[in-house]
Structure formats: C-alpha cells, structure tokens
Amino acid sequence: MLLKNSPAPLDARSKELRRSVLRMMQGADRGHIGAAFSLIEIMRVLYDDILNFRSDEPEWQDRDRCILSKGHGCLALYAILADKKYFPDDELDKFCAFDGILGGHPDAGKVPGVEASTGALGHGLSIGIGMALAARMAGSARRVYVVTGDGEINEGSIWEGAMSAAKHGLDNLTVLVDYNKLQSYGPTREVLDLEPLLDKWSAFGFAAEEVDGHDVDALRTLLQPKPFAPRRPLAIICHTVKGKGISFAEGNPAWHHQSRIGDEGFKELYDALETA
Fold first, then answer.
1. Tens-digit pLDDT profile for residues 97-139
2. CA atoms within 13 A on the CB side of 148
3. C or N terminus of the chain, fewer CB within 10 Å?
C-alpha cells in the first residue's frame, strides 16, 4: 500500500533551500523545479544528519559518498552544497552561466562535493556500487548513498546494478528512490508502471523500506548510518510530491522543467512557497 504524504507545512529550513532553488532558476530563467522540489527533504536529511564529510576537504578519502543519479534534480544538490560551504554562495547566481561552475546536470570535474557526473539516467547506481565495493576492499567504514528518480528506474542498468549489489552483499550501500510518480511526460503508472515497487527491490535482494519523503523526522530515523540488514543493500522508497511546496506545481507534469517564467511568474512562485 502506498504511503500518504504528510500534509504538514514546510518548516523554515525546507523553505530556505527551496528559495535557493528559485534563486538559481531566476538567474538562468530555467530549471527542473519539479524534480528539485521533490528532493529537498531527502538531500537535507542526508547532508544535515547522516553523511560524514568535510566540505573544506571535499576529496577526504573516508568521506561518505552521495550520488544524485537523477542529475536533472541538481538544483536541490547545489542548494545544499552551497549551504554546506562547498563553494561560495554567489555561484548560485551563475547557474548555467558561461562563467559559472553549476550546469544543468552535476559535473564532478567542476563542482566540489559532486561525486559523479550524472544526467544520463541509470548510471548512478553502478557508479555507487563500485564505490561501495572499493570501500569494503579498503576496510573503510564509509557508506554510499545513491538517489534515483522513479522514471529513471525504467532503465535496465538500474536492475543489473541491483542484482550485482545484492550478489556482493553491499550493506554499506543505500538507494533512495524519489518516488514522486511523475516522469517527464506523464504518470509513472501510465508510462511504465513500477508497482509493486517495494516488492521488486526485495526480490532483487535488498532490504526495502518506504517512507514519506517529505517527513524529515521519519527520514532521519530510517537513514541512521549503519547496516540495515547484514549483507544486504538497502532500498528506501521515498514517497514524494513533484513540485512540493508550490501549490500550482505540485503533481503537475508541466512543471517538470520550466523556462521563460518571467518576473511576475517568479513572484507567484515565491508567494506560493511562503504559504506552503
């Protein structure tokens, strides 16, 4: 049974991060707002409460790795990386600018804190599996977290990777599925139905759980940095709302990506966020 998303208002931190996303979009007059807003609480909890990292030493060997496999949701990642001081805050104003480092998909060669260049969907899990295997071979306690989209897991490479992760008993690997139930051109149930999604991950050898992906306390509890089940990777189905926080964008596939919003349009977005 699918969990219902909490109707609780967004708190100050969640709104702050969403304002950073709108700030980047306004500078570039484009961006994947729906995909970013469904991710905010997932990324927030990972970086605020779970991941072991040093933003002043982004290549620290024993850091935990977080891969945003659904690279088009990068605005949420950039907002939290700037908040954690991986790069100067004013870089947010140069999203998709020629003199900026922040592109429309994350680039590990340019952006401190980005672990893998993603956006060609379906690749992040396999990269994360390699990182998890390397950590185990090195005897390191570091963990690997891979955040995927729901439309993304239509890709066969995701399920090939899942079988490999289970085969190798990678209990230092966690996959989080941003299950907002909309992909670029329609509902997942119509494009390629994913249900029963929890059972699929279980059948592929994962310990599998589901959670309201906007419930910060529930995410914190479920994501405690320890093996969830010995010798089994963990999959967490995060039930989210695409465009969460903007009433007229929530669950609306037209807001998967937006451009040429204009000053009046951004005023409406900021006003809607304040009442979320």
1. 999 999 999 999 999 999 999 999 999 999 999 999 999 999 9
2. 28
3. N
Confidence of residue 5 (pLDDT cuts 50, 70, 90): low
Distances (CA, A) of 61 to 114, 135, 142, 173, 217: 14, 10, 9, 17, 29
At 1 the pLDDT is: 36
Mean local confidence (pLDDT), 48-61: 98
CA–CA distance, 49 with 35 (Å, rounded to integer):
22
* Helix axes 156-167 and 124-137, enclosed angle (nearest 10): 20
pTM metric for this prediction: 0.96
Closest CA to 144 of 115, 119, 187: 115
pLDDT tens digits for 167-214?
Answer: 999 999 999 999 999 998 899 999 999 999 999 999 999 999 999 999
What domains can be seen in the chain, in order of their start residue?
Answer: 12-274 (3.40.50.970)
DSSP 13-49: HHHHHHHHHHHHHHHHTEE-HHHHHTTHHHHHHIIII
**What residue type is 234 in one-letter code?**
L
What pLDDT is attached to residue 227? 74
